[in-house]
Amino acid sequence: MSVTKKYIDFLRDISTFIPQERIYTDELRRLAWGTDAGFYRLIPQVVIRSDNEKEVSELLKCANKHLLPVTFRAAGTSLSGQAISDSILIVAGKHWEKYTVSPDATQITLQPGIIGQRVNEILKPYGRKFSPDPASVKSAMVGGIVMNNASGMNCGTHANSDKVLHSARMVFADGTILNTGDADSRRNFTLQKPEFIRQIESMRDLVRNDHQLAERIRYKYSIKNVTGLNLLPFITFDDPFDIIAHLLVGSEGTLAFLSEVTMQTEYDYPFKASAMLYFDDIKEACRAVVAMKKLTTENGETVVKGAELLDCKSLASVNDPTGYGLTAVLTETKASTAKELAGNIQIVEEALKNFKTHTPVHFTDKESEYAAYWAIRAGIFPSVGGTRKPGTTCLIEDVAFHIEDLPEATAELQQLLAHHGYDDACIYGHALEGNYHFIINQSFSSEAEVERYEALMNEVKMLVVDKYDGSLKAEHGTGRNMAPFVQYEWGETAFELMRAVKQLFDPKGLLNPGVIFNDDPKCHIRNFKPLTLTNAHVDKCIECGFCEVNCLTCGFTLSSRQRIVIQREISRLKTSQEAADQKRLLALEKQYQYLGNQTCAGDGLCSLSCPMGINTGDLTHDLRQEQLPANSMGYRMGVFAANHFSEIKNVLRPVLTLADTAHALLGSGVMSTLTKSMHHAIGVPQWTPAMPKAYNPESVKKEIIQKSTQPQPEDLKVVYFPSCINQTMGLARKSPEEQPLVNKMVSLLHKAGYEIIFPDKMENLCCGTIWESKGMPDVADSKAAELETALLQASENGKYPVLCDQSPCLYRMRHTIKQLRLYEPAEFIYTFLQDKLEFRPTDKPIALHITCSMKKMGLGDQITALARLCSNNVFIPEEVGCCGFAGDKGFTHPEVNAYALRKLKPQIEKKHIDIGYSNSRTCEIGLTTNSGIAYVSIVYLVDQCTLKKKKRYEYQQRK
Length: 959
What we know:
45% of the residues lie in helices and 13% in strands. It is an alpha/beta fold. Helix 2 crosses helix 20 (560-574) and helix 8 packs antiparallel against helix 19 (492-505).
């Protein structure tokens, strides 16, 4: 049977229970989903977005029937090539996010698609946390964390996934389901597979009777080690089901699919302190770490919870000013009380008196201070990666030494990197556990560079294994990267035991072939991922996937990482003359138009979690610009709109009035059905009941000009620029409010005693965001310049602050207008009106949405604080980032808005909330549409909950 026919038959079989929209066989999505954070590339033949355990069971039965290999993927943040496939890739991320917390919160049961940081957020109210803490915890999912036995800065070997796993639910290669935490499941499995249980028990007894092997296993796992399969369960557990569950930890999808896991949670110490210790010599720094590792309290608890070493190259990469050639150890201690914390600090300081530090030892328990230390630690990777040569990749290797070998081994590793010409390489990591990462910027574009990398890895192997008997992989997984060296590190006896485990679980070798077990001794230097230059905004991307947690279309169309992957491949194909490549190029460009371009919100939140600060929205804007050359009809229409902006708004107002009239006559139900049909049939913008009525601010402008008021102090004047959206759109028909936002803003400013100045000809003014988002940056900048001129004149060259009532507009204004003090409503009210208003908070629960622009401007805490001045019950929905409305995308592509807000309505209903607030009119339309409640500007909340503050002399007279 041909390979192609196998896949055709497989696809026919699975189409009976998997919807077609979750099966990808097209060029674009196979490439997009076939990319992970590592530096290898395989392109799967089929990608399946799984939804539940039953589906995975049936999928594995079909793959087993057709003898087709399968690889599992969660977040795709793994670094060693363990989440890629050239066959079938089953994705278990979105939709695998259910959890339950035990009554005492000491255990949590998790599906594999929950992000590690989300687990910590769930546990925080209980004073507990998820103990595995890899650097990728804000992006990596539980499935990947457990199946790679990822650890991190604080959990070491005492609290990694293997140590805290209680039970596991899994699907075997033949589709069999086992829950090791359920007595009935265990009993049924024993009846179905008695030989399996017998062999597990036989392996357990074999290990225990081989004292040399048993001792070797204990020694190897006394430090971090994820090279090969996890053999420790044969030593640790008697029960075969406990052994089975723990064998999955670190197995990287080679044994079974993990569908659910129950983990022990860890106490989250409320008191913490950190110190950045500087040493002149790296050996002295390591000797100090060895000493701190031994420190304990009177009750036997370890004093130092974390010690992160940063070598001189690491410090130089983040421009640390302390001194040249130093080594730092970022040290952390934690306690249950302030008194205990002070005692811990004293113990550490006393121990460090035996070592020569470059600067005095200073611990701080102030979060603002120690957060700066940890920011330095976090900044190393992006700093080194961001300075690499174009086209090279930033590799992070991962080794561990026994703590007593740390001083010598660290110095030798540093020398080895220099010997092979990696002058910009740096060493940093979890020194307390003997676990280091070293970063190298590597090119694979020539045979000489590949050979250099191979020579380095061979010498690393000899240093780590031959000389110090350490771990070639401490926490990043074996993958393809270290598969050729598993037997070398462990020896033949242990390796054959691993092979026996693999044969027992996966007799046909269909689960993640090539990972951990690979007969090709050169597999670690094959199938390198090309990093073709494509766009200056994104060329520094290392495809780590950290951006995806903030990408609203991740799991819907493409993520920000996947957009970069596809554009890199498009750029590579453009240089090829091969007919097959040109055919692929046309397919990718056509498919990208909707999946990559039209559905990208361009909100830029991806940049907040990207270690390089890359905004994939900039790439999208550039691509849109390429599609709108200066002589195109679209560009000319954009220029016309910019030059006749007030007339365009005058045309839009009757359209809004017509839609509102139809709404009144037909009702919401009929109107929604009719407009949805028109949207799908001819592409007209989607109407929703939240669509606003028309509005024109001319009346309120005239009222302010004509109104006779007492002269105001010079410092109580503000230039108010209503955004073009709020100059055109008023309230929705069923809005709970009575006044359009401009009127309400004016009313609130007057309440606070402010005189309002409107800029001249404001009906023509715009910040330019509309044109920027469409790919016309020059037109956008000309509108911004026009606005700046008007605002300078109105504010008397910056004498008065400028208020814009739409946060996305304010965001762009701050990037293009540098001479003025610019504010959106929340910051302006919090800064200037707080002392002029008397706040009377309500107990009524309210929802608050923090827009993308507020997050990017760092104003999320400020709008939250303002909301809490007004309400004692402020709810910020969890896992709701960008709303996806993106200017007009909620009208043109409402499916993006709906997907972005899919988790909003259930939370609103659970909290019994009937009103929400934000500070962007278009976002509020989308939020209203998808939440079931009205969302309006936070200005309404402030006005509702405040009175004009009485002057002191008025108060005294009243007394």
